[in-house]
Amino acid sequence: MHEGRVGHTATLLFDGRVLVVGSLRGDPDSAELYDPAMVHWSFTGSTNTPRFGFHTATLLASGKVLVAAGYGGINHICSNAEIYDPATGNWTVTGSLNNARALHSATLLSGGFVLVAGGNSAGGGFLASAEFYNPGPTTGTGCR
What we know:
By secondary structure, the protein is mainly beta. It has no helices and eleven strands.
């Protein structure tokens, strides 16, 4: 990797590459791709929001990746989400979660929705709630 990282995510893409996003150290806006066929790391588009860690990255049925919440700054838990398109290397802001979360889980469900559950809240407590993200036909509708 070009950047040392901690608190990041690593997502296996359909084409075999691995997307690595965010870091508590180094550049939290950066994302890198590992290509095992070329045994090569390369930078890809920067996120719209810094991801200092403890966010989630979920591979969607479309092949795009939903990156949600986590630390958007030191001691700042965020609720926003964005979509990475591996075909273009671009990030697009999408609907935010209803609750700011870090250290939560995100699971792709058979209908294409993503279940986002638990985690730490912006107030420092634990969340006993869940939300559904609907990727929708274009940019997604956020969580409900």
